[in-house]
Every structure is written in C-alpha cells, then in structure tokens.
Amino acid sequence: MGHLNYFTVALLMTIESSFIPFPSEAVIPFAAYKAAQGELNIFLVVLSGTAGALAGALVNYYLALWLGRPLVYRFARSAIGRMLLLSEAKVAHAEEYFVKNGKSSTFIGRLVPAVRQLISIPAGLSKMNMRDFIIYTTLGAGIWNVILAVTGYYLYEVREKIYPWIGEILIFLGVAFVIYLVVKARAGRKRNSKTSQ
Fold first, then answer.
1. Separation in Å, CA 53 to CA 90, 145, 163
2. Apex CA 172: angle with CA 167 and CA 178, to 5°?
C-alpha cells in the first residue's frame, strides 16, 4: 500500500469491482491518507478509483452478457466460483435486487456491500442499456469512493491522536472486512447445503 499511485488505485478498484473478492475499503482510504500527506491528489484518487470500479463493472456486465444465465450460475456453483466467494444464492440475490429496483439498482447497489460487486451481472443478463449502465455505475461508485476517501483523509487529520497506530488500524479494518466476507460466504454455503438436503 505504500506504493499506491493512480494506476494501482484504478487497477485494484477494477479487481474489487469485478467478481474477484477484494475490498475497496483496503484501497481508497489508504490512497486518501497518502493524498492528505501531499503524495497524491484526493480528487484524482476518487477519479482513478471510480474509473477502475467502472472498468471492473464492465467486465462483469460483458461476461454475463456473453455467457448467459445458465453459464453464470454454473460458474457460481463451481469450485473456482466458491474460491472467489461466489455462490448461486449471491448471484440470485443480486438478480432479484436488480429486478426489484430496476435500472437504479446499478446506482443504489454500488452503495450496498453485499450487492456492490455483483450488481453488474444481472445488468448484463438483462442487456441493460449501456449508457444508463455507465451513468448509474459511475455515480454510485463515485459516491462510495468519496465516502471512503473522506474517511482516509480524516484519519490523517486526526493522526496525532491515533499515531503511530494508523497503519495498523487501517490494515486491521481491511483484514476484518475480508474475514467478514469469508465468514459470510461460509454461512451462506451452510444455508445452501441445508436447503438442498
């Protein structure tokens, strides 16, 4: 994280926004903290993070569009899908969320942790209009990145009170979020196995 720049922020956010589990909470706050130190520009951090989030969302959109529903669900059930913390239930939940909220779900869904990475899949499956998809995804991802950036920037402002533990605190928060995702995925698998019996 000490080597974060605009390219690596965009790259990591592309990964985060695709189906690969990687928390944005471990990227944007660190970059914003560096911006507060004067090493980066806070606006360019948000811009590069949002561009990366859009790129990752487009990956999911086109994969869903090209593969179609049967292959997407088959992938979610596969060993690789499980390794990436995907499940049929998660994809179905994202699809139900999309159907319930319509086009705006690509905007609202970017702000919902359990749905954020997967909301692009039902958009691709339903062949959502590309212009609307880009607009709503960019707005939602931008707002989320602003929230994370303000958090990281604020941590720098109060660094005297929490220094020298700031690095450990940020790492702890990132690790805690990853553990939360893993535990949630395992609980979902247990629920799925019970319902299938």
1. 19, 9, 31
2. 130
